[in-house]
Design brief:
Length: 64
């Protein structure tokens, strides 16, 4: 999504692209980024829930 947005931005600046295409690409990039962040948040929350279910602390305090 980021690469597509960059390509359309370059085309628009060169006068080859449409503003609507650029805006759609930017919206898709933002939606994709939000989806990635939501998935990462779900992963972290799941890991925390698993650690709690196993009786472990949320923070790994091993000394190295």
């Amino acid at each position: 999504a980021e690469a597509a947005q960059a390509m359309l931005s370059e085309d628009f600046r060169a006068g080859k692209g449409l503003l609507t295409s650029l805006l759609e690409a930017e919206q898709m990039f933002r939606e994709t980024s939000l989806g990635y962040l939501a998935a990462d948040n779900a992963r972290i929350r799941s890991q925390a829930a698993l650690r709690l279910a196993l009786g472990k602390a949320l923070i790994n305090e091993e000394v190295q």
